Every structure is written in structure tokens, then in C-alpha cells.
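Render Winged helix-turn-helix domain-containing protein in 3D.
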Amino acid sequence: MELTAENLTRAFKALGHPTRLAILEWLKEPTSFPPQDQPAEQVGVCLKHIQARAGVSQSTASQLMATLQQAGLVTCTRVGQWSHYRRDEAGIAAVAEAVQLRV
């Protein structure tokens, strides 16, 4: 997957926020979050668990995750009323590859 300059800029902006960067690191180990009804390895981590670990409001957590999703760094799966997030390893790899090619 080749990133446009606009998409790469969006990814850099998303990674430039310390809480979003921390969330991406936390999502490397989804089992480090509290147990969920659905296995985190399959559907991702529920937003409420991300919110609790980040110590932010629900709306702030939603905004943080929306930015990461728009940057192509996480994916979202809806389970009932809950949103679950996981890292988009292909998107992250594409950003890393684009950086290597451009620097």
C-alpha cells in the first residue's frame, strides 16, 4: 500500500500526540487490558478500556481513536453498542515503509 503525502501527513499528526502514541503501544498487547466479553485478539479492545487507561473522558477517547482510524493506524469493529479497536499492522507498516523511502 502506497501512502499519499496527505495520508502520510495525517499519520504523522496522529503519531504526534503523546496519548495517541501511547494507545498504539498499548494495543500491541491487547491482553494487557481487562477481560472482555469478546476476545481482544479477535475484535480489538473496547473503547471503555482504552478510555480508562488513558484517563480521559469518553468523548476525548472517541476523538483520539477517530484520529488514529482516519490515519489508517487502527481499525474499529462494532460489537453491539461498543466500539473495539486494534492496530492496523498493514497501515503501520505502510507508514514505516514510506518513511524509509522518503528519508
